[in-house]
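Schema walk-through. Below, the input block comes first and the output block second. Nothing else is stored per chain. Lengths vary across the set, and this one has 120 residues.
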Amino acid sequence: MTSLTKILLQKSYSDLLQQPINQIYRDIKSVHKDAFADNERIVFIDDVVDELPAKTAMLKYIDRILEHLDIDKFFIEVINWGNIHVKNPTNYAIPDSMCITPYLSLEIDVDGGFHRCIGT
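--- output ---
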């Protein structure tokens, strides 16, 4: 990133792994545009150990959101920093055969409970 880069959204993996599953979609959707400027970026800070299975599922889920919203990976920046161990991470393991759209308004708690998310 250069000093001229405009950060539209900045989230750490450790935070994403501890929030409801649909929050990532809402965060990315809130900065979505029909066209991004060349200097605009969505920044993710990779601060979680690599061997965490939930991290792999979360990254796959983020890729599906970016594809759904038609956001090119050119506008995504990942900064590697840290090696936090997250306890009881959110389960982002959604099968590829399942459409994610109905789950964008479903809140799944880290303890496995779920309910409709009424707020947007």
